[in-house]
Design goal:
The chain is α+β, with helices and mostly antiparallel strands and 291 residues long. It folds into two domains: 92 residues, no CATH class; 160 residues, no CATH class.
Length: 291
């Protein structure tokens, strides 16, 4: 097997292993970065919802209660305010969603679906669990969700949700007496859920990955060509010439030219040694030919 072929085979094997390892690592890193980016978006929406709930509870609700003790204004409910505020964002970005998924809600639009019930039950089973992050497939692609528990830690909430008799009549008139009652203090009744699409971040990650692979392949192609040129000019061509002169000497043609021995590298040192050997052979042959 020729020297250049051996060199190229080793180079291809080394590059193949390195290329594969780099591709796997970079793809994993980019996918993780895309997930972190999506999670940051989800956390931003969640914090916005929490801020909206706090504003409604501390600023809006007290003002609305002054309008009439017997009246019920849904705008005074923090969950209602956060959901209504997000609806404006949802109109512009329909793939983003926020929901206060509840097992037994007063407003039926907040009733938890099957997958949301599973999240709520996980919070109910583990009171130390404060956040759940996961992924799920949707009709529009992969989506990341962030969930936080909704627990009844304020006894004031039981004024509307303990029993039908204790609930404001205006609320019963609006939502009816069938749902949203029987809640207990410190009970986890639902979960705040934010869903953010991963399609765009994953697409960006894939584009970056393909660009990285293409650039890495281009760099290898250039290095491969340069190394082969260096190998041909600095080693293979000189060794071939040295081999041709050695063959000629072995056939008795000792009057041929010496091998050019310029430089200080290993091939040049080999050429110097060969030239000395050639001269020694010439001298020995002359001594044998002289009477």
């Amino acid at each position: 097997m020729r020297l250049a072929l051996k060199f190229n085979l080793v180079l291809l094997i080394v590059f193949g292993l390195g290329f594969g390892a780099a591709a796997l690592f970079s793809r994993s890193l980019l996918q993780q970065s895309a997930r972190e980016e999506t999670l940051e978006d989800a956390r931003l929406i969640m914090e916005s919802a929490l801020a909206s709930r706090a504003y409604t509870s501390t600023q809006v609700a007290p003002l609305l209660k002054r309008l009439g003790e017997d009246d019920f204004f849904p705008q005074s409910v923090p969950a209602f305010g956060a959901t209504e505020q997000f609806d404006a964002l949802h109109a512009q970005f329909p793939d983003f969603s926020y929901k206060e998924a509840t097992l037994n809600p007063t407003n039926l639009r907040d009733r938890a679906t099957d997958w949301e019930v599973d999240i709520v039950n996980r919070f109910r089973q583990d009171s130390t669990l404060h956040e759940i992050v996961g992924e799920r497939d949707t009709p529009n692609g992969r989506s990341l969700y962030l969930g936080k528990p909704i627990a009844i830690n304020d006894a004031a909430c039981l004024g509307c949700h303990s029993t039908v008799d204790a609930a404001p009549k205006a609320m019963l008139k609006r939502y009816g007496p069938a749902n949203g009652f029987g809640w207990q203090l410190h009970e986890t009744v639902g979960a705040q859920l934010v869903s953010v699409p991963m399609t765009v971040p994953l697409a960006h990650a894939d584009a970056a990955f393909y660009a990285f692979v293409a650039s890495l392949g281009s760099v290898f192609a250039v290095v491969f060509v340069v190394l082969n040129l260096m190998l041909t000019l600095m080693v293979v061509r000189r060794v071939v010439r040295l081999s041709a002169i050695a063959d000629a000497v072995s056939l008795g043609k000792i009057d041929g030219p010496d091998f050019p021995a310029t430089g200080t590298d290993e091939v040049a040192r080999l050429a110097h040694s060969f030239n000395r050997m050639k001269k020694s052979v010439e001298h020995a042959i002359k001594m044998l030919e002289d009477p």
